[in-house]
Structure formats: structure tokens, C-alpha cells
Amino acid sequence: MSDETNVDVVTDEPVAPAAAGLCGSEPQSSTPAGDSLDLRLAESEAQRDEYLDALQRLAADFDNYRKRALRDQQAFAARAAERLVAKLLPVLDDLERALDAVEHHEQAKVITGVEMTRSALAAALASEGLVEIEAEGAFDPHAHEALMTRPAEDAEPGTIVQVVQKGYRLGDVVLRPARVIVAE
């Protein structure tokens, strides 16, 4: 309805627009404007239902994606573990052969077996990206752990004078820092 005021014919007083349309008992939907509103309401409800359905489908798709990604991640971790274990099985075999040589008191074979086992283990871990951290020269707090300092006449202060335990890096991540003694 418009903002115009209607004039009551009997009293010549202005009548509010809302009151002018309520005189009869007919519902507004029978008027052409009412039909238009009902049609627009029905279209809006249909569009709302479409949006709700699309949103529900999107939520279900996302939930399925999340579950699939979790399964894929678990499968990837299992395959990585399988690959590493398969590489370490020959090392286990070498250790068993070294222990068997100890039982027969063949010292030369024991030493050879332990050396072979160490090199096989190092090769398996290197193939997975494990790298030994260099522990020579200047102390690096990101890659080294200083256990103590001691005076060293032949080394500059802040340089590594002894490696207590080797450190290792896997890619860019320090798995274990090299434990060192640093010159004062």
C-alpha cells in the first residue's frame, strides 16, 4: 500500500492507510498485490530449500572428505612404516649372524658382522633421509647441545673440542642435537 492518506467521505477526516484496507473481511491474498506477495514468498521458500539442500550436501561432502583424508593419512603412515621395517630386516639378520658367531667364539667374524650391521643400518636410515650433524668448528645452538665447556689452548673459544654423542637431522628437522664439549 502507499503512504497516501485516505479521506473518509462521511467526516472528511483523514484515515490511516492501514485502517482503510481493513474495512472488509476479505484476505489480502485475493487482491492482485496479495497474489504477487504469495508468489514471491513461495519462490523465496523454494530458493531457501534449494540453498539448505546445497548446504547440507556440502556439509556431507566435507565430512566425507575429512574421513577420506584421515584414512589416506593413516594408510600413508602404515606404508612408510612398512618400508622402513623392510629396510631394517636385513640389519636384524646381520645381528643374528653376529650373535651366532659369538657362540662359536669366532672373534674376527663377530667384529666383521657388527661392522656390516652398523653399515647396513646406517644405509637404511640414510635412504630415509637421516643425516649426521657435523660437529666440527663453531658451536651452533640449533644443531649442538653443549654439555660443558673446558679450557682448550689449541682451540678458539666457542669451538667444539669433543663430540660426546653424534647428532642427527631428518630433512630440516634436528632429531637429536650433537652433544659436545665447547672450548672456553
Report the top-level CATH class of the largest domain: Alpha Beta
Per DSSP, what share of the residues sits in E-state strands of 2 or more residues? Answer: 15-25%
Say how many strands there are.
8
Assign the CATH superfamily of the largest domain: GrpE nucleotide exchange factor, coiled-coil domain
Strand order of the biggest β-sheet: 3-6-7
The separation of the N and C termini measures 93 Å
- Count of helical stretches: 3
Q: Give the helix level as a range of percent.
A: 40-55%
Summarize the helix and strand pattern as letters. EEHHHEEEEEE
> What is the annotated CATH architecture of the largest domain?
Alpha-Beta Complex
Radius of gyration: 42 Å
CATH overall fold name of the largest domain: Hemagglutinin Ectodomain, Chain B
Structural description of this entry:
The protein is α+β, with helices and mostly antiparallel strands and 184 residues long. It has two domains: 31-128, GrpE nucleotide exchange factor, coiled-coil domain (Hemagglutinin Ectodomain, Chain B, Alpha-Beta Complex), CATH 3.90.20.20; 131-184, Head domain of nucleotide exchange factor GrpE (Nucleotide Exchange Factor Grpe, Chain A, domain 2, Roll), CATH 2.30.22. 53% of the residues lie in helices and 18% in strands. It contains three helices and eight strands. It has helices spanning 17-21, 32-103, 107-127; strands at residues 6-7, 14-15, 130-132, 144-150, 160-165, 168-170, 173-176, 178-183. The strands form three sheets. Strands 3-6-7 form a three-stranded antiparallel β-sheet. Strands 4-8-5 form a three-stranded mixed β-sheet, with no helix packed on it. Strands 1-2 form a two-stranded antiparallel ribbon. Helix 2 (32-103) runs antiparallel to helix 3 (107-127).
